[in-house]
Amino acid sequence: MGIKDPLPGSIGFTQRWGSALNLNPHLHILCLDCVFTLVKDASKFQNVETLTDDDTENLLINITTKILKHLRRKGYLNKEGKVVDNPLADGLFTDHESLAQATVSSIAGKIAFGPMLTLRELKLLASR
What is the SS3 assignment for 64-95? Predict the structure, then answer.
């Protein structure tokens, strides 16, 4: 790149739930296609080369491999990569009973709280 001491910029957060309070873990990430560098004690915004398709593919393979290793090590996936039903692997579920209930209900396709129909029942009614 030829840029001395580049500093990338990004921000991200994890969202565990969808708008219907169903289990839907996903990430929201904003990554800049530039870097910052110090020039005479001032931050300077500098564009970087655009990633090629090959660069993007290699990056995706690298990230996916690391995520899968992490999920296996933490007990969320077995050796074959199948999801392991183990909400206790995350301390969040042992500390907050309502989150555990919402997660189990979401996996089962049910509404977590209140005297409502299951999602499967709602789908059956909607298909009539």
Answer: HHHHHHHHHHHCCECCCCCECCCHHHCHHHHH
